[in-house]
Amino acid sequence: MQIFLPIAEVSVNAFVLVGLGGLVGLMSGLFGVGGGFLITPLLFFIGIPPAIAVATGANQVVASSVSGVLAHVKRKSVDFRMGGVLLAGGLVGSWMGVWVFTILQQVGQVDLVVQLCYVVFLGLIGAMMLQESIRALRRSSKPGHRRRLHQHNWVHRWPVKVKFRASGLYISVFPPLLVGLAVGVLAAIMGVGGGFIMVPAMIYLLGMPTKVVVGTSLFQITFVTAFTTLMHAVSYNTVDMMLAVLLIIGGVVGAQFGTTLGARLRAEQLRILLALLVLAVCGKLALDLFLTPDDLYAIQPGIG
Amino acid sequence: MRGLVALMLLVLACTASAQSLVPQPDADDLPIRAAPTADPPPEETVVAGLSSDSVAITASFNGSEILIYGAIKRETPIPAGPPLQVIVTVEAPSSGVTVWRKERKAGIWINAEAVRIGAAPGFYAVATSAALDDILLPEWDNRYRISLAHAMRAFAGEVAVESAVPFTEALVRLRQDEGLYRLDEGSVSLIDQTLFRADVSLPANLVEGAYKTRIFLLRNGQVIDVFVAPINVRKVGVERWLYRLAFDQPFLYGLMSLGVAVFAGWGASAAFRKLRRP
């Protein structure tokens, strides 16, 4: 069934959009990532103009995160205090990121910087997670091993300590604030919620237990993407509600299945899956950068 | 029988042409009837009509077919020599685009050089009654900018590259690959050098605006008469409502998008909880 999108001004198959939303929603519920890093490139592939794909992708991420975060609240796996601190950093970071984005646009190399960002960050994070979770899987299969709650590193020696009860942490407020800020900057430049960066940062940098990481990350993503959506709608008129509704229908259902599935899988297996997914997207983007393109020329709307 | 049909078509054509002859603000660069030779008046002129002078984009819009038909009006017998030819073009409103060329730098392909094109139509279809090169002389093509190569209207700013030709060729090639620029040679059917019809299909990814249809009469590769008619392409119903809201009330629209998202997220969460624990 073809449907015409009023803002994107293209006609696409409605079922493809619902399916796409469902796939990304599943990821969202399963891993606690918003799915922006998947939905945005996928929308490019089916011919949605990039600016609209980014803005509408953010809107779809709001819906799937709300759906996911509610499921996590019920299971008491959201650290609201940690989420609030991350969010405060995230909003400032996202505002800064938009400012950097505008400068890049003036220089004319936005595409390249965005793609390089993706390749570098996805590659680093994917490799780190894969290595760590394989090690954890081996360790946990050996009986009699005493596991520590989390690793203590330099991050835990900073001042202004706060108790994050749900995470079982007593650490300085600055590391999560900085994580939120950094993720906000990257999220605005890359046009994503930033969950795929934040989840590993929460696990490896802050030492949060995997159980609360997903819910807390979703909580932060909901607000950051809501802020992004509103900003895009007001300043660039690039949110396509028709497109968003179709993606959301698939997305909310997918997110619920993802959360249910996530509760049944072991944390290490979950992390290996996410690591492989991140590396796959990274590999695809890297190939695009290094292989000779089919056509050296490309059309970009506008003469700015 | 054939004569009767032709007569009916002619009558239809004349009534339809009457309404499309109303001056339109869009037909700026060409007058409605632009005879290339001012005097004496051309011996053969074109009267034409469109199956519809507007295209409504609804939610289920999936492209549209436009029938352009008409007849050649003449006081004198059909002149001897090579037969009359017809070219029909349909073009979307123009907008600015940037064409980038990638280059390998430090192993990575990056956008290196760009040509900024001030105006190129988002859609351009050319339908002809015979091979375009055989029926249109280059100087007349230059004058009326008929062929696809001439679809590009103007550069924007200084051209910084050595030669802009590969860039403009790339624009036409890429748009042709997407089906946005089309040359359909021989798709205009011409009967007895008097009646013609052309079917132009508009793609699904149409941009709103005033489209322009041009009909050229040619003899010996020269344009002897031009007829211009507008086609109004606009969104209707929910499409129009959403579009207007997004541009007139962006903050409200943004809040509404968020509201839909939050409600859908909450709704699914609640529904699944009910399903699991009946």
For the structure shown, list the relevant keywords:
heterodimer, A: 304 residues, mainly alpha, two-stranded antiparallel ribbon, 10 helices, 5 strands, 71% helix, B: 278 residues, alpha+beta, Immunoglobulin-like, 2 domains, four-stranded antiparallel beta sheet, 6 helices, 13 strands, 29% helix, disordered N terminus
What does it look like?
Chain A: Belongs to the 4-toluene sulfonate uptake permease (TSUP) (TC 2.A.102) family. Chain A: Keywords: Cell membrane, Membrane, Transmembrane, Transmembrane helix. Chain A: It is found in: Cell membrane; Membrane. Chain A: The chain crosses the membrane at residues 12-39, 51-73, 85-106, 112-130, 173-206, 212-234, 241-258, 270-291. Chain A is 71% helix and 7% strand. Chain A contains 10 helices and 5 strands, in the order ββαααααββαααααβ. Chain A has helices spanning 14-31, 36-45, 50-74, 80-107, 110-141, 174-190, 195-205, 210-236, 241-264, 267-290, and strands spanning 2-5, 10-13, 161-164, 169-172, 297-301. In chain A, the strands form 2 sheets. A two-stranded antiparallel ribbon of chain A has the order 1-2. Chain A has a two-stranded antiparallel ribbon with strand order 3-4. In chain A, a hairpin with a 4-residue loop joins strand 1 (2-5) and strand 2 (10-13). Chain A is globular and about 50 Å long. The relative contact order of chain A is 0.22. The model of chain A has no long low-confidence stretch (mean pLDDT 77). With 278 residues, chain B is α+β, with helices and mostly antiparallel strands. Chain B has a 6-stranded mixed beta sheet with strand order 2-13-12-4-7-9. A 4-stranded antiparallel beta sheet of chain B has the order 1-3-11-10, with helices on one face. In chain B, strands 5-6-8 form a 3-stranded antiparallel beta sheet, covered by helices on one side. In chain B, helix 5 (237-248) packs across helix 6 (250-276). The longest helix of chain B is centred in the C-terminal third of the chain and has 27 residues, at 250-276. The interface between A and B is large, with 63 and 68 residues. Strand 5 of chain A pairs antiparallel with strand 5 of chain B, so a sheet runs across the interface.
